[in-house]
Amino acid sequence: MQQMGNQRDSNAWIFQTWASFMISVGITSIGIVYLPVDLWVKGFVGMGLGFSVSSTFTLAKTQRDLHESTKLTSRIEEAKVEQILSQHGGIK
Q1: pTM, whole model, 2 decimals?
Q2: Deepest of 3, 33, 75, 87, by most Cβ within 10 A of its Cβ?
């Protein structure tokens, strides 16, 4: 059976993704604070930013979970096929 190793991102990639996230949220937040509009409009836009960020994290987690469950399912099916082949003499 083929061993599937854990894929690990580099520290540079992890830093870049966190820095990108922090910079984008920070700059957008500063832009909202300095908008020349009423306070309630700033609050509305800020809430929109907050909901967008949280739904993005939820979507990313859901996609990751779906991908991981697909990998696990295929590994289980592969193990079952190997077991059946070994019980019946298999193909050599």
Answers
A1: 0.65
A2: 75
